[in-house]
Amino acid sequence: MPQIGFGAGFGGWAVGWAGLGGRVSQGVVRVRPTSRSPCSLPNTSGRRPGRIRRVRARAAIGGVMLAIVSSATVSGVAGVPVTVEVHVSSGLPGFTIVGLPDAACRESRDRVRAALLSSGLEWPIRRVTVNLAPSGVPKSGAALDLAVAVGLLVASEQLPAEAVSDRGFVGELGLDGGVRAVAGLLPLVAAIDTSEVVVPASGVHVASVVGRHRVLGAHDLAGLVACLQDDEQWPGVEAPEAVPALNAVGDLADVRGQPLARTAVEVSAAGGHHLLMLGPPGAGKTMLARRLGGLLPDLDHDTALEVSLIHSAAGAELPPDGLIRRPPVRAPHHGASAVALIGGGSTRLRPGEISLAHRGVLFLDEMGEFPTSVLEALRQPLEQGTVRVTRACGSATFPARFLLVAAMNPCPCGEAGRPGAC
Q1: Contact of 414 with 381, CB cutoff 8 Å
Q2: Are 57 and 26 in contact (CB under 8 A)?
Q3: 213 and 102, same structural domain?
């Protein structure tokens, strides 16, 4: 607790700290008055009067400690390497994060503190400053929690500095110390330039598809510390079970009749031609269009990795092995906005439906119901295969090379050519 004394003369006031972990010894002493300090404290003890002055602590708080840990953040559909610098120094206890963090990053101080205490680790009663470099790149999400916690343990001398050498860390911390999965794991791991990367145990197989790192899994913070100190072996991860593709579509054999429309769908899939189908309601336009994706061949490894990176950055679910091997089929509602279709965001730029359909099929059912502004926004992606999105938070280029399939009625009522049509 602080002890404060006030003096009436030029001696002013003095504050002595007796706390901060019991490592500070600073007190208030009396000295004889001088000619430059004519005012003194009231003499109630019968001794010569004196005045208050501040004196230095006899035992200083430990020296400044700095830890540097590698991690990453997502910008658009790509990962950006981030250097997490944790600075622990003397001063009033506090925790500050700088480097353009968003709300989720700033809240990491509470998650990290609770995780350390729940794991039986010490929270330093000192001034902690965390810098997320480069400072000009916005940081978003909770993927930096694990790197901040490990850096804090190194800076407070609870972990050796060698434990984080040539290792990257990605993961969100729970209040119980558990290491949770994060969105965008694939681009995050791909952006880290270290030989080893520590990720949540549930994401080891997904992160391994990048192929440039030795991927290590962590279930909780206490177990991670034990592994970093070589007290325990890194946990093994079971091989994922084979499951059907998440984006499986129907078979064209389900369609009965419509030989001309079936031929058009087959030619479109074989040659990569965009397709527009017009007809009255109930003619089977939607059924045919949704089965076009089943005619496309499987993606090769490089293309599958490219598609998986986009879906991971958007926070979409990936197969257990981490690769989307079938061409994606996306069918946005006709009420979708231009931002939902093209991509964007106020705090972090996210890919839209046309980027999620990259190397696959974008199906616009009831195309005539889409706003004109939304349809006009498709011009650049169809011509260039990419879309450039610029917002106040930054700009990003999203891949958007897809096969456009649209279906619509020939008139608003859908009964063109029949009696009573509009």
Answers
A1: no
A2: yes
A3: yes
- Note whether 344 and 200 are same-domain residues: no
Distance (Å) of CA 335 to CA 338, 354, 371: 10, 15, 8
> Does 206 share its domain with 282?
no
CA 124, chain centre distance (Å) = 26
pLDDT value, residue 133: 96
Task: Give dist(CA 344, CA 352) in Å, integer.
Answer: 7
Q: Are 249 and 272 in contact (CB under 8 A)?
A: no
Q: Give how far Cα 391 sits from Cα of 19, 114, 136, 334, 349, Å.
A: 49, 35, 15, 24, 8
Rounded CA separation 193/70 (Å): 8
Q: Cα–Cα distance between 290 and 362 in angstroms, integer? A: 10
> Domain boundary residue among 195, 228, 261?
228
Q: Evaluate the CA torsion angle 331, 333, 339, 345 in order and state its sign.
A: negative
Tokens of 302: 């490089």
Number of domains present in the structure of the chain:
3
Average pLDDT, the chain: 83
Of 60, 89, 111, which one is at a domain's C-terminal end?
60
pLDDT tens column, 290-333: 899 889 999 999 999 999 999 999 999 898 888 999 999 999 99
Mean pLDDT check: name the lowest of 5-14, 222-231, 308-317: 5-14
What CATH number does residue 174 fall under? 3.30.230.10
Report the distance separating Cα 205 and Cα 312, nearest Å: 14
Same domain, 186 and 308: no
Nearest Cα neighbor of 288 from 274, 277, 303 is 277
In a shared domain, residues 49 and 92:
no
Q: Are residues 279 and 318 in the same domain?
A: yes
Q: Which domain holds residue 20?
A: 1-60
Cβ contact 377:336 at 8 Å: no
